[in-house]
Write a structure and sequence with these properties.
Blueprint: H1 4-53, H2 60-70, E1 78-81, E2 84-85, E3 109-114, E4 120-123, E5 140-146, E6 149-158, E7 163-170, H3 171-219, H4 235-284, H5 289-316, E8 323-326, H6 327-344, E9 348-353, E10 358-361, H7 363-380, E11 386-394, E12 397-404, H8 435-445, E13 449-454, E14 460-467
Parallel strand pairs: 9-11
Antiparallel strand pairs: 1-2, 1-4, 3-4, 3-7, 5-6, 6-7, 8-10, 11-12, 12-14, 13-14
Length: 482
C-alpha cells in the first residue's frame, strides 16, 4: 500500500458501487416477489368478478357480444363451436362503438372460457394466434408458454355457468414493471454517485490532513533541530505523535550524552598526554625519575582508553534479557583472577557469605560490573589494607557487598561519584573516573541498584541489590585470601 489516500478512495469507491449494486439486486428481487403476489391477487379478483357477471346459460349471441367487447384492433376475440372458431364478431358492438385500444398494455391481459370438457368457448385475441390457448387442468396459478410468449395464468371453474375461466398476464408486463420500479429507485443513486465520490475524496483528504501537517513539520526540521513537535493531533495520531516526541527526546539525550562523552574523553585524555610529554621531555633532559612518572601516565592513559571502549560498547548495545544465574562462581573466578593485583599491594581479599546466590541477571554484565567494583577497591585501598566480598540475602533482595579499608568518599560526592570522569578519594591513584559509571549502567540493565556508603572509621562499602529470584540460595562459604 503505497498511498493511504488512494487506497481509501479506491476501496471506498468500490465499496459504494458494490453496495449500490447489491441494493439494486435486492430491490429487484424484492419487487419481483411482491409484484407477483399483487398481480396474482388481481388476476384472481378479476376472474371472480367476471364469473359473477356470467349468465347461467349464455347464448351464442351473448358470447359474440362479449367477444366484440374483448376484441382489440388486430387481435379479435373468437368464439368457438365444437372446437372450431367462428368468424370474428362485427367490429362494432351493440352500441355502435368500434373496438378501440385504450392502452398498449391491454394486449398483455387476456381472458378465456372453456366448457366442462375443456373445449374452448371464447378466447381473447392473443390466445388465438397459433390455435387455441391450452385449456386449464386445475384451479389455481400456473406459468404457461404459448406462441413463444410466457404467461402467468389464473384458472377457476364456475359451477353456476358450468364454465372454466382463465385470465392471463404476459410475463413481459410483470418483468417490465419490476425493471421500471428498480430503475426508478436506482437512477437517483446513480445520479448522486459522482457527488458521493467527490464528497468522499474531500472528506478523506480532510481526514488525512493532520498526517500531511505532521509530515511537513518533521520534514522542515534541520539536522540539529531537536525541539519537540507541537500542535493538536487527532486521537488516532496521538500515539504516533507521542512516539515521535519520545524518540526526539531519546535522540537528544543520546546526542547530548555523546557530546558530553566526547568532550570529557578529550579533556581526560589531554591531561595525561600533556603530563606524559612533560615527563618524557624531562627524561630526555636527564631526569631519570621522570621515566617512572611517564610509565604511571601511560598506565592511566591505557585505563582511560579501556574504560572508554567499555562505555562505548555499553552505549551501543541493547539491553540483554536477564536469566536466573548463580553469582557465586562468577565472583569467585574474578576474585582469583585479580588476587595477584591485591597480593602485589599486600592486601587481604576475602569472599564470605552464601556459596549460592541466584539472581535475575546477565552473566557477562555481572562479571564486568564486579570486576570494576573490585578493581576500584584494590586501587583505592592502601597497601596492607583489607577488601571483603560478601554474598547475602536479606528479605526479598539478593545482595553483593564489596567493602574496603580505603579513604572512603566525602559525603557531598556520594551521589555524584557515579558520573562519568568524576573522580574522588586519592587523586594520586591512577584511574579514569569511569569505573563506577560503568557499574551504574550495568546495574540498571540488571534491574539492580548500586548503593555507596562510607564505613566507620574509614573505608567504602558498595552494595549491589537485586530482586530475589524464585530459586533459593543456601550454604555458607567463608573464604580468606592473603
Amino acid at each position: 500500500m503505497r498511498s493511504i489516500r488512494r487506497y481509501l478512495i479506491r476501496t471506498l469507491a468500490l465499496t459504494i458501487i458494490a453496495a449500490i449494486s447489491l441494493a439494486a439486486l435486492a430491490a429487484y428481487l424484492i419487487t419481483d416477489h411482491e409484484l407477483e403476489e399483487i398481480l396474482d391477487t388481481q388476476l384472481s379478483i378479476h376472474s371472480r368478478l367476471v364469473a359473477g357477471q356470467l349468465s347461467r346459460q349464455p347464448t351464442q349471441d351473448d358470447l359474440l357480444q362479449l367477444a366484440a367487447y374483448m376484441s382489440l384492433p388486430g387481435d379479435p376475440a373468437l368464439v368457438y363451436r365444437n372446437g372450431q372458431p367462428l368468424p370474428p364478431a362485427a367490429p362494432n358492438n351493440r352500441d355502435g362503438v368500434p373496438a378501440r385500444l385504450y392502452h398498449e398494455e391491454e394486449r398483455k391481459l387476456v381472458l378465456g372460457f372453456w366448457d366442462q370438457q375443456r373445449a374452448p368457448v371464447l378466447l381473447g385475441g392473443p390466445w388465438n394466434s397459433s390455435g387455441p390457448f391450452p385449456a386449464p387442468q386445475q384451479e389455481g396459478f400456473r406459468w404457461e408458454t404459448f406462441d413463444g410468449k410466457r404467461w402467468r395464468v389464473f384458472s377457476m371453474f364456475d359451477v353456476r355457468s358450468d364454465r372454466w375461466i382463465s385470465m392471463g398476464l404476459r410475463s413481459r408486463f410483470h418483468t417490465a414493471l419490476v425493471e421500471r420500479i428498480t430503475w426508478n429507485n436506482l437512477i437517483p443513486l446513480l445520479l448522486l454517485l459522482p457527488l458521493l465520490l467527490w464528497l468522499m475524496g474531500r472528506i478523506i483528504r480532510r481526514g488525512l490532513a493532520p498526517i500531511t501537517t505532521l509530515s511537513a513539520q518533521v520534514k522542515s526540521r534541520g539536522a540539529n533541530d531537536l525541539r519537540r513537535l507541537d500542535g493538536a493531533v487527532p486521537d488516532e495520531l496521538d500515539e504516533l505523535y507521542q512516539s515521535l516526541n519520545g524518540f526526539i527526546d531519546r535522540l537528544e539525550k543520546t546526542l547530548e550524552r555523546e557530546r558530553r562523552f566526547t568532550a570529557d574523553a578529550a579533556h581526560e585524555m589531554r591531561t595525561p598526554l600533556a603530563a606524559l610529554r612533560i615527563h618524557l621531555d624531562n627524561a630526555q633532559a636527564g631526569e631519570t625519575l621522570s621515566l617512572g612518572k611517564a610509565y604511571t601516565g601511560v598506565e592511566r592513559l591505557q585505563r582511560v582508553v579501556e574504560q572508554l571502549l567499555v562505555l562505548a560498547r555499553l552505549d551501543q548495545s541493547s539491553s540483554t534479557c536477564p536469566t536466573t544465574i548463580d553469582v557465586y562462581p562468577v565472583v569467585a573466578e574474578l576474585v582469583a583472577e585479580m588476587w595477584p593485583l591485591a597480593h602485589a599491594r599486600h592486601q587481604t581479599l576475602t569472599l564470605t557469605g552464601l556459596n549460592r546466590l541466584d539472581v535475575m541477571a546477565d552473566e557477562i554484565n555481572v562479571g564486568i560490573l564486579f570486576r570494576n567494583l573490585l578493581d576500584n577497591a584494590i586501587r583505592y585501598t592502601p597497601e596492607g589494607g583489607r577488601i571483603d566480598i560478601v554474598l547475602a540475602r536479606k528479605g526479598t533482595s539478593a545482595k553483593l557487598f564489596v567493602r574496603d579499608t580505603g579513604p572512603g568518599l566525602p559525603e557531598a560526592l556520594l551521589g555524584k561519584v557515579t558520573e562519568r570522569f568524576r573522580r574522588a578519594a586519592d587523586q594520586s591513584t591512577t584511574g579514569s573516573g569511569l569505573g563506577l559509571s560503568i557499574v551504574t549502567e550495568l546495574a540498571k540493565r540488571q534491574q539492580a541498584t548500586l548503593v555507596l556508603e562510607n564505613r566507620s572509621p574509614h573505608g567504602l562499602e558498595a552494595q549491589i541489590l537485586w530482586a530475589a529470584s524464585d530459586t533459593p540460595s543456601s550454604g555458607l562459604s567463608p573464604g580468606h585470601v592473603r
